[in-house]
Amino acid sequence: MKVCIAEKPSVAREIASVLGATTKRDGYFEGNGYAVTYTFGHLCTLYEPVDYKPYWKSWDLNNLPMLPEKFKVKVANNDGIKKQFKIVKSLFDKADVVINCGDAGQEGELIQRWVINEAKYKGKVERLWISSLTTEAIKEGFKNLKPAENYDNLYYAGFSRSIGDWLLGINATRLYTVKHGGYKQVLSVGRVQTPTLAMLVNRFKEIENFKPQPYWELQTLYRETLFSYEEGRFLKMEDGEILANKVKEDEFEIVSITKKKGTEYAPKLFDLTGLQVYCNTKFGFSADDTLKIAQKLYEKKVVTYPRVDTTFLPNDVYPKVHGILSKLTDYAKLTAPLLDKKIKKSSKVFNDKKVTDHHAIIPTGMQTHLQYNEQQVYDIIVKRFIAVFYDDCKVSNTTVIGKAAEVNFKTTGKEILSKGWRVIFESEKSNKKEDALLPTFTQGEKGPHEPSFLEKQTKPPNQFTEASLLRAMETAGKQVDDDELRDLMKENGIGRPSTRANIIETLFRRKYIKRNKKQILPTVTGIQLIDTIKNELLKSAELTGTWEKQLKDIEKGEISASAFIKGMKRMVDALVYEVRSEQVQTRISAVNNKPSGASKTKSKSKAKSKTATLVGSACPKCNAGQLIKGKSAYGCSHYGKTCDFTLPFSFSNKKISEKQFIRLITKGSTVNLKGFKIEGQTQEGLLRFDEAFKLKFEPKKTAAKPIAPKAGDPCPKCKKGTLLKGKTAFGCSQYKSGCDYRIAF
C-alpha cells in the first residue's frame, strides 16, 4: 500500500480524489492502492526545557543558559493530535512506500519529516512537489515523484531555524523576564521579533526627537505651469531673497525643451510580501489577513502556492500561459488581445536563475465563486499576470528649462504615447501622482510670470505602516525602492515571507505594538523592552538578516546545520553572561497590569499563610512517600522499604536551611551559597540532585567571555583566507574570490 501524508485534511481530500482513494476512514482516505492521511500543521514539536531536565522547568537565572547537546522532537501534548499520530503511524507500519505530500516549502518539509521520524518509519519515502492543487498539477506531480533525499538540505534548514528560535527565544525570554520583568510580566525576546520591534521603536523615537529645519524654495508660475529654481532649495533665506527680487524685474523666457522617449514596464508578478504590501496599501488588509486569503485561494485551486519569495516564472511555465489565459473567461475582454497572437516572453518575467523551489503567485486558470475579500485579492493577482504579457507602455518625458534675469527654472511632464499594459488598470484609482501633462511651449517665447519665495520645513520620516514594515523586514531595515535591488537583498531579509505576518501578529498579541489607523506604533512596554536590551546584536536587523542568509546556505548545502547551531549557542552563552551582570534600574510591567495597594496587602497575607514547609511534602524521588524530619536529615517516610531518599542537614561542612531545600526541590537548585569545604578549600556554589537524587555540588559559574576573533585568524568559513579588520566588522581576505564571511564587532 502507498501512504500519502498531506499537511491538511482539505489538501488530503484533493489528492485522494485525484488518486481514486474515495473511501473516507477515520483520519484518512483509502482506495485504489492508496491511503491518504494528513497532519493538522505541526503534529510534532521540539522538546520543552523540562523534557530535558526536570529543574529546567523553573525560570531561574542559575539554570541559564539551557543548551541541549542534542535537540529532540516529540508528539504534541494534545489528545486530538495524539489520536491522529497513532492513525498515521499505523498506516506507516503497513506501507510499502510513504509519499510526503506536505506543502512544498521549508516548513512543510519539516512538519512531515518530524512525523515520519517520530513514527520510526524506515522504509522508502518519495516527495510530491507541486505549486498548485489543480487536478492537472497533482497528476503531473505524481508522475514526477522525487526521492526524499533530494530535500534533505531543506529539512536541515528548517530544523536549524527551529533550533535557532528555541535557543534564542527560550533563553533570552527567561533571561530578560527574570532579570528585568515586573509583576506577572513575561518579556518575550526572539530571533526575528526583537529586531522587528527595534525597527519600530527606532523609527518612533526618530520622529519624536525630530527637529524641523527651515529651508526656502524659489518658484515661478508661467502659463499655469509651476517652474522650480533649477539648483534646488536654499538653506539660507538671504541667498534666495536676492534671486527672488532679481527675477521679479524680468520677463520669463523658455530656453530649451527636451523630449525623451521612454519605456515603462508592467508591474512585477507578486511574491507573498509584494501581495501583502499591495493589499495593505489598497484594501487595508493586514499581512496575516492577506496570507490567509491567499492560502484559501490556493486551496480552492485558483492560484498557485502563495508562500514564495520570487517574482519570476521558470521557462517551463511559458508553454502553459496560453492555456491559463484562455480559461480566464471572466477576464475575456483583457485576455482577447493576447490570445490572437504569439504571447510575449520577457526576461523580466521568465528567469530560471531567479526561481528556486517555487515561482511567483499566478492564477491557475480555474475559476470559482469567491467571497468579496477573496475576489479582491484574486482580481489583482490575475490582472498582474495578464499585464506582464501586454506591450510595454511608451511615454515621452519632457523637460522644459526657462529663465528670468539669467536665473534658470525647470519643470517636467510626461505624455503617454502608447498605453500598453496600463489599459488593464485603467479602472483602478492610483495613489501615485503622475507627472503633469504640459502645455505646448516654444523655444524663445517670453511672457509675464508670478514668482514666489516660500519658507518650508523639513519633515520627519513616516511612521511604519504594515506595508512599509514588511518592506523593511524584506531588506533588513534598509530603505530600498528599486525592485531589482530589492530582489538582490531578499537573501538577507528578516524572517521568511511565510513567517513575517505571524511575527507582526505576535508583537500585537504581546502588546508590544498597537495600530493607529494605518500606522503601527510601539507601546510603552515595547519601547521599555528595547531600551532595556543593551545587547545590540539582539536588536540588529543586519545580524538577523545574516542568520537568514546562513539558513538559505544550509538549504543550498553550502554550510552545515551544526555550524549555524554552534554559532547560536555561542551567542546565547555570551548573552547570558552579559545580562546576568547588568544592574537592574527598573522593572518592566505592562500598562494596566499593576496590582492596587489593597490587592498587594491581600496577596502578601495570603503568601504568608501559604508558606511552604518541607515536612509533609511529597518525596521528590518516589512521589509516593512524604518527607519527615530525623535527627540529622530529612528523609522519605518509605525509607528502608521502597525508597532511600535523604536530605542531610549539612553538606561539605555547610549547614543548609529548610528554605534552600524547598527551593532545591521546587526549582532544581539552591541559590549560590558560600562556605562549602571541598577538598580542603572553601568554595561558593549551589546544590542540585544527581540522577540518583543524591546531593551534588556545582561551583559558582564564572563564565568566560567568548574569545573574540582577531585580524590574521583563519577564516572559519572557507578555511583559505584570513580575517581582515574593517570599520565595523571582520571579513575574509578571500572576499573577492566569493567568500562572504563577516562577523560584526
TrEMBL record:
<keyword id="KW-0238">DNA-binding</keyword>
<dbReference type="InterPro" id="IPR034144">
    <property type="entry name" value="TOPRIM_TopoIII"/>
</dbReference>
<dbReference type="Pfam" id="PF01751">
    <property type="entry name" value="Toprim"/>
</dbReference>
<dbReference type="InterPro" id="IPR000380">
    <property type="entry name" value="Topo_IA"/>
</dbReference>
<dbReference type="InterPro" id="IPR013825">
    <property type="entry name" value="Topo_IA_cen_sub2"/>
</dbReference>
<dbReference type="InterPro" id="IPR023405">
    <property type="entry name" value="Topo_IA_core_domain"/>
</dbReference>
<keyword id="KW-0799">Topoisomerase</keyword>
<feature type="domain" description="Topo IA-type catalytic">
    <location>
        <begin position="151"/>
        <end position="576"/>
    </location>
</feature>
<keyword id="KW-0413">Isomerase</keyword>
<dbReference type="InterPro" id="IPR005738">
    <property type="entry name" value="TopoIII"/>
</dbReference>
<keyword id="KW-0479">Metal-binding</keyword>
<feature type="region of interest" description="Disordered">
    <location>
        <begin position="441"/>
        <end position="460"/>
    </location>
</feature>
<dbReference type="InterPro" id="IPR013826">
    <property type="entry name" value="Topo_IA_cen_sub3"/>
</dbReference>
<protein>
    <recommendedName>
        <fullName>DNA topoisomerase</fullName>
        <ecNumber>5.6.2.1</ecNumber>
    </recommendedName>
</protein>
<feature type="domain" description="Toprim">
    <location>
        <begin position="1"/>
        <end position="134"/>
    </location>
</feature>
<dbReference type="InterPro" id="IPR003602">
    <property type="entry name" value="Topo_IA_DNA-bd_dom"/>
</dbReference>
<dbReference type="InterPro" id="IPR013824">
    <property type="entry name" value="Topo_IA_cen_sub1"/>
</dbReference>
<feature type="compositionally biased region" description="Basic and acidic residues">
    <location>
        <begin position="446"/>
        <end position="458"/>
    </location>
</feature>
<dbReference type="InterPro" id="IPR006171">
    <property type="entry name" value="TOPRIM_dom"/>
</dbReference>
<comment type="similarity">
    <text>Belongs to the type IA topoisomerase family.</text>
</comment>
<dbReference type="InterPro" id="IPR003601">
    <property type="entry name" value="Topo_IA_2"/>
</dbReference>
<dbReference type="InterPro" id="IPR013497">
    <property type="entry name" value="Topo_IA_cen"/>
</dbReference>
<dbReference type="Pfam" id="PF01131">
    <property type="entry name" value="Topoisom_bac"/>
</dbReference>
